[in-house]
Amino acid sequence: MTTLQDVLSELSTGRLQIVDLTTPLSEQTPVLQLPAPFANTAAFRTETISAFDAAGPAWAWSNITLGEHTGTHLDAPIHWITGREGKAVHQIEPARLVGPAVVIDLSADVAANPDVLLEPAHLEAWEARHGPLPEHCWVLLRTGWSERNTDARRFLNTDEHGPHTPGPSVACARWLSEHPAVSGFGVETVGIDAGAAGGFEPSFPAHHYLLGNDRYGLTSLVNLDQLPASGALLVVAPLPIVGGTGSPARVYALVERA
Q1: d(CA 170, CA 32)
Q2: Would you tell me how many other CB atoms lie within 10 Å of the CB of residue 201?
Q3: In the predicted model, is pLDDT for residue 66 greater than 80?
Q4: Which has the closest alpha carbon to 197: 107, 82, 117?
Q5: What is the pLDDT of residue 2?
Q6: How confident is the prediction for the chain on average, in pLDDT?
Q7: Which of 211, 214, 246, 257 is the most exposed place for a label (fewest CB within 10 A)?
Q8: How does residue 1 score in pLDDT terms, banded at 50, 70 and 90?
Q9: d(Cα 130, Cα 181) in Å, to the nearest integer?
Q10: Is residue 37 scored above 70 in pLDDT?
Q11: What CA–CA distances, in Å, run from 126 to 105, 119, 122, 153, 167?
């Protein structure tokens, strides 16, 4: 039996399960809101072309409007000024979009303080327990934030001082960008940076370091609580938009069950 046949067999028996990590897209999907004078992305919207009516008696279809960075989406290097000479979405090698999932759980800390930062010490503690980060891995920050994603106000969590959401520190963003095994970094929040990251030096360090060093970002993930700390396989499937700075993506994980 081949490896692929083994996978199909394990899926059929339930020993291998697929966990969907993607937020469904709808008009209610929260999107990033930048302050004036910056321009904002379009919210998700559908427009019916026909629905078994005179415009199309035997078929239904719709147009959709959305930004590249809507819902669960991938950030490509050219999304940020430090990566502007790097890859667009369609240029990312498929092998970089499939890899081991490394799950760092800060959900208890975030429940007490939404501004909690992921630090290199958290990643070093993971390595001490599970071994070195595996090649082509995706580091996923579990925070419990996806519980908020049906309420834009709670999800964006912004007050007069700005947004309050967890994310990596400057040191951690640089650590991830320089680690040779890391393909990308994923979060449950609206962006890969912490809410306070506009005031960091450099500002928005996850974007600055990761995208500037051919790493990729994933946002608005769900169901990270269903993944083990190590051992799952992540699959990221963005649209191969030519010249795309990002793309909505279907993201899922293969998980072995006892």
Answers
A1: 21
A2: 7
A3: yes
A4: 117
A5: 84
A6: 97
A7: 257
A8: low
A9: 14
A10: yes
A11: 10, 11, 6, 33, 17
Q: Which domains are seen in the chain, by residue range?
A: 3-38+68-256 (3.50.30.50)
CA-CA-CA-CA dihedral for 242, 237, 98, 90, to nearest 10 = 0
Catalytic residues: 79
126-161 pLDDT, tens digit each: 999 999 999 999 999 999 999 999 999 999 999 999
Cα–Cα distance, 66 to 44 (Å, whole number):
5
What the block records as the tokens of 2 is 């081949």
Amino acid letter for position 209: Y
pTM, whole model, 2 decimals?
A: 0.96
Structure tokens at 207: 């974007």
One-letter amino acid at 233 equals L
